[in-house]
């Protein structure tokens, strides 16, 4: 048997986990033909067939199932080596990958990220603004900023710094609120993201959200809809209170939803660029506490 190439193992695991060559190619950032070639090369070096192609996708053969255990051990060892070497890097330069929710990036932290970039011009910053949870153990990101409802659900291998509590409130446009107070409009629609029925806040305050719901496909569309006076919706206080076009719905107090956490893993947290970023961000979070907890505005 020829010597196994670690890159071939990566391709094998990607196909095995997704059950699809196309999905593996997208995950690895290569084309379909490259994945097929690397899998064929892997099978040739092992001298066995590791996948069986079926109409539903690629399925591991018995030999492939045996290979998975050893491939995952190689993967874990590779990640451990990377984090140890990365942890010894004490220069304020190089790549820093930060994952955080889109709302937090666009509505709160982008000016601070710009300040950090100006303070440390030799640090290459990559912002992964997505709703998906990045795997810090696999080095998909160096620092994660997450909303956490219950700290008990945090993985034990992550190191966390708890930030301010987060609150959400119900908002509508100031123009729509003025019309409601003047009695110049009919029912005000609830703006929602999903189709789980009428939300609990719809009848909680002085204004009763009624009529057919307006469903917005994502958070930014939700904000745009409420700004244009379509109805009222629930938003994080750091979004709603900071928007001059919006006002809190009267009679509904903000509700705490959890807390912000800054998370790192293993040796990664020891690098200078990661330490600098965490120290910088923790100070910013302390200053944002009134806005994040809904104490910066008393409502209208």
Q: Can you characterise this structure?
A:
By secondary structure, the chain is α/β, with parallel strands linked by helices. It folds into two domains: 82 residues, Arc Repressor Mutant, subunit A (Orthogonal Bundle), CATH 1.10.10; 210 residues, D-Maltodextrin-Binding Protein, domain 2. Strands 3, 4, 5, 6, 7, 8, 9, 10 and 11 form a nine-stranded mixed beta sheet that branches. It has a two-stranded antiparallel sheet with strand order 1-2. Strand 1 and strand 2 form a beta hairpin. Helix 1 packs across helix 4. The longest helix has 26 residues. The protein starts with 5 loop residues before the first helix and ends in an 8-residue tail after the last helix. The relative contact order is 0.14.
Short structural description:
The chain is α/β, with parallel strands linked by helices and 300 residues long.
Structure keywords:
9 helices; single chain; Arc Repressor Mutant, subunit A; two-stranded antiparallel ribbon; globular; alpha/beta; 2 domains; 41% helix; D-Maltodextrin-Binding Protein, domain 2; 11 strands; 300 residues
């Amino acid at each position: 048997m020829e010597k196994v190439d670690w890159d071939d193992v990566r391709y094998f695991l990607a196909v095995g986990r997704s059950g699809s060559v196309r999905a593996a190619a997208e995950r690895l950032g290569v084309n379909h033909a490259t994945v097929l070639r690397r899998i064929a090369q892997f099978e040739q070096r092992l001298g066995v067939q590791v996948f069986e192609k079926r109409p539903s996708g690629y399925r591991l053969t018995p030999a492939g199932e045996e290979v998975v255990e050893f491939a995952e051990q190689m993967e874990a060892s590779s990640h451990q080596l990377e984090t140890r070497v990365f942890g010894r890097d004490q220069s304020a330069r190089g790549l820093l990958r930060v994952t955080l929710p889109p709302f937090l990036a666009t509505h709160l932290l982008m000016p601070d990220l710009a300040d950090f970039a100006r303070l440390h011009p030799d640090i290459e910053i990559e912002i992964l603004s997505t709703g998906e949870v990045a795997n810090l153990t696999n080095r998909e990101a160096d620092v994660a900023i997450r909303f956490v409802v219950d700290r008990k659900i945090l993985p034990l291998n992550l190191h966390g710094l708890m930030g301010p509590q987060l609150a959400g409130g119900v908002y509508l446009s100031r123009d729509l609120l003025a019309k409601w107070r003047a009695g110049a409009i009919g029912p005000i629609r609830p703006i929602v993201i999903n189709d789980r029925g009428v939300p609990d806040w719809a009848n909680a305050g002085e204004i009763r959200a009624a009529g057919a719901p307006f469903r917005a496909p994502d958070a930014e569309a939700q904000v745009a809809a409420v700004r244009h006076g379509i109805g009222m919706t629930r938003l994080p206080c750091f979004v709603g209170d900071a928007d001059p076009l919006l006002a809190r719905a009267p009679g509904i107090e903000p509700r705490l939803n959890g807390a912000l956490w800054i998370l790192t893993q293993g040796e990664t947290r020891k690098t200078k660029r990661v330490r600098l970023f965490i120290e910088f961000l923790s100070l910013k979070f302390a200053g944002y506490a009134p806005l994040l907890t809904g104490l910066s505005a008393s409502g209208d």
